[in-house]
User: Fold this.
Amino acid sequence: MVRRLKADVLDLPDKIRQWMEIAPQGEALWRYDEVMAQIAQTLGQAIARGATSGGIAKAIMGLLSSARKWLGLAKIANPATVDLIDDVVEAKGACLVFAHHRGVIAELEKQLRRRGRSVVTAHGETPDRERAEAERVFQKGEVEIFLGSINAAGEALTRHRADTCVFVELDWVPATMHQAEDRGHRAGQTAKGYHIITLLAHMPDRQNLDEYVAKVLIEKLANINTILDEKAGIAGRRIEGTDASVRNRVIAALMSEALRAEVAKNAQFAAMRKRVVPRSKK
Assistant:
C-alpha cells in the first residue's frame, strides 16, 4: 500500500506556528488565583491522607475546569488580545478565532463588536443550520471573524477564506486543536503560508496552567510520527492523545509542586522546633 501524504494531494501552504505570551489581567485573574489556591490546598490534604492518584484527580477536576475558565477570561481582559485579532483583520481581511469556554467566546465577541468588527459564532449549543449559515457568510466575505469553540467549530466546516487562526485558549486534546486549525488549512487555501497563533498566559510569579498544558502539546507536536505531511517543522506532525493523557500530566505536575511545598513546610517546621530551647528548671 502506498500512503499518499496530505501535502502531495492538496498542495497546501506551509503552516507557520507561533506561540505568543500575553499577561492576564482584571478580576478574572484574582478569581484564577483563588481557585489555584483551592487546588493547592486540596492537593496538600489529599497527599497528607495518602489518597490515590485517581482520587486526587477526581477531587480537583472541577477546580481545574474553573481555573482554566478564569484564565481564559483573564487573557482576553488584556486589550492586547483583541488588538492582535484586530490587526490580523486589518491586514488580511479575515480571521479564525478559537476558544474553549462559552463564557470566553461570549465576552470576546462583545469586545470585538465594540471595536466595530463583524463576527459570527459557533459553539456546542449552536444548531447545525445556524452553524452552516455562519460558515457561509464568513466564506462569502460578509463578516470578518469566525469565532468558535475548539470542539464544536473544529469539525466538518471549511473556512479557507482566512489564512490565520488564533487560539485564545488551549484544549486538553491535542487532536482537537489540530482539527480546529485545519478548518482553514484545506483545499482552496491560496495563501503562501497558513498562520496559527496560540496565546499563552505569561505569569512568571504564579502557577501557570497554560504553561503545563503547552509543554505537553508542544512535546506531542514535536515527537509524534509524521502521517499528514504539512511541510513545516513541528506543524507537520499529526497530533494525537486524549484529554486524559494531557490532563493527567498536568495533574502530576501540580501534585509534584504540592508535594515539594509540603516537604518544605515540614522541613521549616522541624527547623523551628530545633530552635526552641526549653527553659531550665530552677
